[in-house]
Design a protein that fits this description.
Blueprint (H helix, E strand, L loop, with lengths): L1 H12 L1 H49 L1
Helix pairs in contact: 1-2
Amino acid sequence: MVKFLLWLILLVLCWPLALAALVLYPFVWLLLLPFKLVGIAVGGVLALVWAVVTLPLRLVRAIA
């Protein structure tokens, strides 16, 4: 909702820029999509490494 209100303000102040932002937004989203996917993959790998590193400690706590 906030983004929409900001866009409406931009539309009132400078309508050509607001229309350009409206048209270019999907292209920017598609351009940034691979970076988002890499971020998700890196987050998963880091979570896996953290689980492997902390596994011995969790096993010792479970036994004791």
